[in-house]
Amino acid sequence: MPRSSQTTKAQILAAAKERFSTLGYDGASTRDIAEASGCAQSLLLYHFSSKELLWQAMMDDLFSKARSAVAPHLVASTEPAMAQLMAGVRGFVAFCAADADLHRLMVQEGRADTGRLKWLVETHLRATHDQITALIAQAQADGAARPGHPTLIYYAIISLAATIFSLSPEIDRLAPDMGLDRAAEVVAIIENFLAD
Amino acid sequence: MPRSSQTTKAQILAAAKERFSTLGYDGASTRDIAEASGCAQSLLLYHFSSKELLWQAMMDDLFSKARSAVAPHLVASTEPAMAQLMAGVRGFVAFCAADADLHRLMVQEGRADTGRLKWLVETHLRATHDQITALIAQAQADGAARPGHPTLIYYAIISLAATIFSLSPEIDRLAPDMGLDRAAEVVAIIENFLAD
DNA sequence: ATCGTAACTGATCGTTTGATCAGTTATGCC
DNA sequence: GGCATAACTGATCAAACGATCAGTTACGAT
């Protein structure tokens, strides 16, 4: 019984995000993803052609959502660079708290120099990296942000913002008493870290 | 031609660390690991019984090395907690800079609540976590360290110390101009972050 | 020297993987 | 109402997986 193509694709993408982020690219199987989204494995390949193209479509979808959480705070603002930066950080932390899968996926792919990493850097990472590091450099020139290579600062922010949420199974096992409202404290940590 | 059992095992463990850390548990195959260490796949299983026990043996080996890089700075010191902490941080950063695989492996396993994660927490993580968070709490009581849940501070330190090195393929692609002596700057970042 | 045992290999088992394809069902258009 | 087409399924492929096992090699103790 054919449904809307968009509905089926969205269900497959959601299942793919869950499986790829927890099991890794090789660990996740297209049969498993198809079963979790309630369709035959062959339908998954009918819509996305191959496992790798499904992975790319899932990444496109995820980065599109991440950009809409961060970008509005950055564009064409008249505020100082540091204020723009912190507004973007708040949006990014909120996104990571709500969906830890993006950072899990990025860490999985960022450790080996594969074809998938090259695709990720050229398609999604480069533009954001260049934009944010320019903002960091401006904030440093204003005397508002701490010194250091902007790329290093950039990755320090990302790791502080995302690691707590992406390692939550491990952290929950070690410190079950820790509260669940970690986002506010994470923002405070980054603000304190960024300040000169 | 039988070699020493210890030599063969060490070669297999080194190859396993490289494959598991870059491809993930499912992505790495015992055939690949055996080929990289120059022996038959059946010999690998002869020495380690199964893929999962090989993975555990590799983790035991790696944590043993990590502990010898950090522990000497912590035990039975008469210095204040903050000074002990920073000494341990310097040892840990140096270890991460020399061998980024441990953190890669930890991030891979820390995101899904599998049997392997449970084994990791109980066998290797719990003791270190309890020891370091107690030190953090003491440094906070001394008024030397910033406030916040010690486990949150603990994971902030770990992510700051390790992420830069474990994501080096991605970072090298984005900012090839960045220097290679990142360890000193990372230590400075953590020291600044920890201070009250 | 020889004998027991640890180290090691090659062949092979049953499963699971990504992928292909012929065939079936339902929807939207004229 | 028929009809082209998009949506979808089940069967099946070759390849790779973890694992088992019978058989071979070489070292070390007696």
Give the topology.
Two copies of one chain form a homodimer.
Chain A: H1 5-27, H2 30-36, H3 41-48, H4 51-70, H5 81-98, H6 101-109, H7 115-141, H8 150-166, H9 168-174, H10 182-194
Chain A binds a DNA duplex (30 and 30 nucleotides) through residues 1-5, 8, 29-31, 39-43, 45-47, 50-51.
Give the H and E element order of chain A: HHHHHHHHHH
Q: Characterize the main sheet of chain A.
A: none
Mean model confidence by pLDDT of chain A: 93
Tell me the total number of β-strands of chain A.
0
- Show the largest interface: A-B, 53 and 53 residues
Beta percentage of chain A is under 5%
Q: How would you classify the helix and strand content of chain A by structural class?
A: mainly alpha
Task: Identify the overall geometry of chain A.
Answer: globular
User: What's the helix count of chain A?
Assistant: 10
Low-confidence stretches of chain A: none
Subunit organisation of the chains: homodimer
In whole angstroms, the N-to-C terminal distance of chain A is 61 Å
Describe the structure.
2 copies of one chain form a homodimer. Chain A has helices spanning 5-27, 30-36, 41-48, 51-70, 81-98, 101-109, 115-141, 150-166, 168-174, 182-194. Chain A is mainly alpha-helical and 196 residues long. The longest helix of chain A has 27 residues, at 115-141. Chains A and B meet through helix 1, helix 6, helix 7, helix 8 and helix 9 of A and helix 1, helix 6, helix 7, helix 8 and helix 9 of B. Chain A binds a DNA duplex (30 and 30 nucleotides) through residues 1-5, 8, 29-31, 39-43, 45-47, 50-51.
